[in-house]
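Quick question: what would this complex look like in 3D?
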Amino acid sequence: MHFQDIKERAISQWETMQNSPTPRILVGMGTCGRAAGGEDIFDTLSREIQDQNIKCDLIQVGCIGLCYAEPLIEVVKPGKPSVFYGNLTPELTAEIVKDYLAGDDPRPDLALGTRGEGTLEGIPKLFDLPVLRSQVRISLRNCGNINPESIDPYIANGGFQGLERALGMKRQEVIDEIKQSGLRGRGGAGFPAGVKWQFCYDAPGDTKYVICNADEGDPGAFMDRSLLEGDPFSVLEGIVIGSYAMGASVAYIYIRAEYPLAIQRLVSAIEQMENYGLLGENIMESGVDIHIKIKEGAGAFVCGEETALMASIEGSRGMPRPRPPFPAQSGLWGKPTNINNVETWSNVPIILQNGADWYAGYGTEKSKGTKNFSLAGKVNRTGLIEVPMGITLREIVYEIGGGIPEGKELKAIQTGGPSGGFIPTNLLDLSVDYESLAEAGSIMGSGGMVIMDEDTCMVDTAKFFLSFTHAESCGKCVPCRCGTKQMLDILEDITNGEGRPGDIELLEELAQSLKNSALCGLGQTAPNPVLTSLEYFRNEYEEHIFKKRCVALHCKNLVSFYILPDKCTGCGKCARKCPVEAIAGGKRMVHVIDQSKCIKCGTCFDVCPSKFSAVVKVSGETVEVPSEPIPVKKKEKAKE
Amino acid sequence: MEQTIDIDWQKIDDIIDRYNSNKEALLMILQDINELYNFVPPECVPIVADKLGVRQSHIYSMATFYKTISLEPRGKYIVNVCTGTACHVRGAERIIEALEDRLNIKPHETTEDGMFTLETVRCLGCCASGPVIMINKDIHGGLDRSSVLNIIDDYKDNAS
């Protein structure tokens, strides 16, 4: 069947569905939706619809990015805008079926927003909400809108038109189009994608390889998982276009084994593309052959580094090697190879479809287009977002993210994972683009953005990242293997209250030599979290070392718990729950913690009823309390 | 934990045949065996080495490099606690402590009854729902001390 016929059939199917008199419900069933209980909601819907004998189609979709509102559904009734409902429970879902699906009350009290033409009284438009207003969805254009397990809806929404155009162009013209779009590698370093393609294209040799790096390993990043689960076809189409442009007939997707759902969707998508002649032999009858193979990673972070990744595909330990030669000259099995990450590939088809100038219309002078971020940590609206380059961090945290929970203070924004750094609150108006973030000492990274509030200890967080890079260091080069260990030891000392004068200087020295001498990106960037926290939060290091104080009250060895005699009512809850029997007391006696026995687990702090709040947590100070239990003072009741 | 298992050699052969005895596919083969028994029984190593034409030492070097491959028996349920940044700032440490207390094991250990293995994983990519754990292939999010213990109890009840 010709692509033209496939397309026409897909569009007509899509239109039939859009105009169908049968209502339909889209259920968010990405990993995040499932983690929040999406499967229960899906089961409830199937049961209720059957029990009440309602005609309705249930469709599983990927993540629309509003992870904070999962489980999430979208109810589409003919002739009306669709309605999103979030934070569902099986009970609320049953109410929606009864009131809106069977009845005609869209339940504005439960609705998040509407999408499509028309309005419903009392419900805002979804894309007018602060969380979505400033987002631009290019890479995530289909996520949450179409069923990711079926190829037809993707085709009906413009899918493979980019490929169709590319196959009608010369290879060099396709590369020029990507160059002109200004697309830069979204994996972190931001190297211009078109230039990278050109290197591979120009390299001598008949056999070339293209690789999609889906080994998303940065802790705190889930953009690629959501994209692969929500719209696998756009990534695959991008890979096919790139393979054609560079003259590769085999492409690999290297994906983490920890993403089983994404793998399953890719496998199914590849099969469907092959059936339609969009992959395999003679693609779209152009005479071009391209095959895509999936290789699963197995839990080694360093495999995100391109030379390590290729070693892993070749069936060896994923250890990096020095560059040059660069992969474009000598990559997989010594052949010219191009590697781009998932998000970069997903942008390729739409650039070919809409043209380079259209894409370059978004973003800043040097950073074109949009960037996906996974917004996580201490922020009200966590989720997957796509924003135009040049947006400020303030807009991301406060407008899209809705600020910090429980009225706490923002302390820092972490971008770029273990290779990135912390950005303090006085740089909130920083423009989000490759250059500005690098200037601030961090990096764009692949898109992890973790928000930290006043309860986060910066020294501990730097230690967290160092312990990560230390554990993931492959051990090949000495600076990384030993340097991360030494830095980690010093950070352990500091957070344990055993920091010594001179530790900060030593850390800085180690950080510099690691930066200058490690073999690959993992080691070279490992000191970044330490360096940026030292630059912006040096006082926290100094307080830990010289005053033995952790201002965030996080570091266990530096905090103490006390029971305030004027607040304790002698209820005994803390003493019963204390795992080491460090609390002395008795009925109607003020309880006392034996500081020498206390292991600082914080259980007493948690279990003390909030109406008393008698347990306090302090650092770097002592609180005057009785040395042994005394009777609780009788409170005089106010009688008026 | 001492445990002997009967290896179904036909299944091992099938796995290797599925990849046409291609040595490039070694990692995938180890993963498939790992999935079958929740670990790679060391008895399989000489067989795989022979069929693929690689040295046994190469297989050991691969199996010890990649974290998802285990050469020691693991439990029926592998409890992976996410320790990514977002889960870390939201209290992943306390989830691990709770699991250590309840299961009486440390990370990378298996309970005596062979039911649970406790593991940590760098990031499961569900940062928005943190703290998160994955038991075999099922994800549980938005956890605290008591809810994670309830989940473990459910698995225990289902198993008995």
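Answer marked as accepted. Chain A touches chain B through 57 residues (CB under 8 Å).
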